[in-house]
Amino acid sequence: MPYPPPSRIPSGPRRRTLLASAAGAALLVGCSSGSEDSDGGTSGSPSVAERARARAARDSEGLVERYDAVLAAHPALAELVGPLRAEAVRHVEAFGGGRKASDSPSPSASPSPSGSPSAAVPLDEKEALADLAAAERALADRRAKALLDLPGEPARLLASVAAAGAAHAYLLTEGAK
Length: 177
Description:
Elements: H1 15-39, H2 44-73, H3 78-94, H4 125-146, H5 152-176
């Protein structure tokens, strides 16, 4: 037995049509931004991504140095700060940096701009955590802004690490309370 036709025919586009057009628009936007990057200079696009990776690795190395300085000054914070430091080391490795899971600082990380503030760790544990949180937050913000200039996979990696940095900032802020 066939179903009777609907008593009222909806006016305007159907839901499937709207979804298909929204998906198509998203694909077009994604394709057009990728083609603009490659049309601007095919040799320039990889170098932009490589420079962004190198910068992200240096920034993460500087962050690891800050974690190391806080851990050296406040060993009691190891339970909270240790896992976050380990994640920062993984970020360095993900960006192709030279630091591995060792505790020794790499020589290339010492000239980084974030290396100098790491020497001055506040004496108060809560202030040290607040400083780490501020550093994580600032780095996550810089990385989020840098996403606009990167193509596909490097942008996804940077977005993931920026989100992790924001989560680290939150955890450190909560730990400082």
